[in-house]
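Need the bound structure for S-adenosylmethionine, inputs here:
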Amino acid sequence: MTWNPDQYHLFREARSAPVRDLHALIPDQAYASVIDLGCGTGEHTLTLARRYPQAQVTGLDQSAEMLERAQAQQAPNLHFLQGDLSQLTGQYDLIHANASLQWVPDHPTLLTHLWTHLNPGGVLAAQVPANHDHPSHRLLTDTALDFQDELGGDARFGTAHGASPVLSPARYAELLDALGGTDITALSKIYPVVLNGSDGLIDWTKGTALVPYLSRLDEPGQQRFLAAYRKRLHAAYPGERVYYAFTRTLFTARRPA
Ligand SMILES: C[S@@+](CC[C@H](N)C(=O)[O-])C[C@H]1O[C@@H](n2cnc3c(N)ncnc32)[C@H](O)[C@@H]1O
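Answer from helper R.:
Posting the output first, comments after.
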C-alpha cells in the first residue's frame, strides 16, 4: 500500500482530537520504553517523547513514505523503525497505537500478541476508527464490487464495510479482561467533521480508506474508480455541506505488575 502523507494531513486538526483523548486516558506513571505502532509521520510519537522524556520512544511503521516524513520529528529519546506491527518484538512499558490497528486483521490474535510485549505494569492504549458501517464505507464497497476483477477478485480491503477487523468497545474490554488486564477503559465517541460536499468526503477517504483500493489500480483505473465512487457519494450527499459523524473506539488497559 502506498500512503500519501500530504493527503493524510489535509485533515490534520480533525484527526488530532481523538489522539488527545487517547493521551488523556493513559495513566501517569514512569514509562521507560514506549512504542508507537503505525506511527505514520510521527507527530504523535514526538508528543509521547516530550511527555515521557525519561523514556526511549520508538515509532514503528511499515510505510517508507510515512517514515521519510517522520524524520523531521526530532528528540534525543526518539527514533523511528520500519516494520510490521503485527510482528512486534521487544518489551515495552507503553504500547501506543493511534489509527493504525485497523489495518491488521484478527484483533483477538493481534491483542494477544501485543500483550506479550508489554512489561508487567505496562499499558496498552489504542484508538481505532469504527466507521465501517457509515455510508462513506458502504458506498466504497459497492463501488469496489464493480471493479472486482481489476482489484484482483476481491472488493473488501482495509477498513471498508465488510472488511474492517475493528470490534465493539465491549468486545475489546472482554478481550483485555481475558488477557488479565486491569484498569480497563473502552469507549466509543463521535468525532464530527464538516466537509465540503461529496468531494470533501472523497478528500477524507483518499487519506485512509481509499488507500488499499487506489494502490491496486493503475492511474486510469484510479480515475475511473474515483469517478464511480464520487457519483455514488454525490447521490447520497447532494448538498454542499456534509456533517460527517465519524465514530472511533478508544481502549486502554494495564498488564498487572
Ligand atoms: C491512518 S495512519 C495513522 C498514523 C499515525 N498513527 C497518526 O495517528 O497520525 C496509519 C498508519 O499505519 C501504518 N500501518 C498500517 N499497517 C501497518 C502494519 N502492519 N505495521 C506497521 N504500520 C502499519 C501505515 O503505514 C500508516 O502510516
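Comments: The CA atoms of residues 137 and 160 lie 5 Å apart. The first strand starts at residue 33 and ends at 37.
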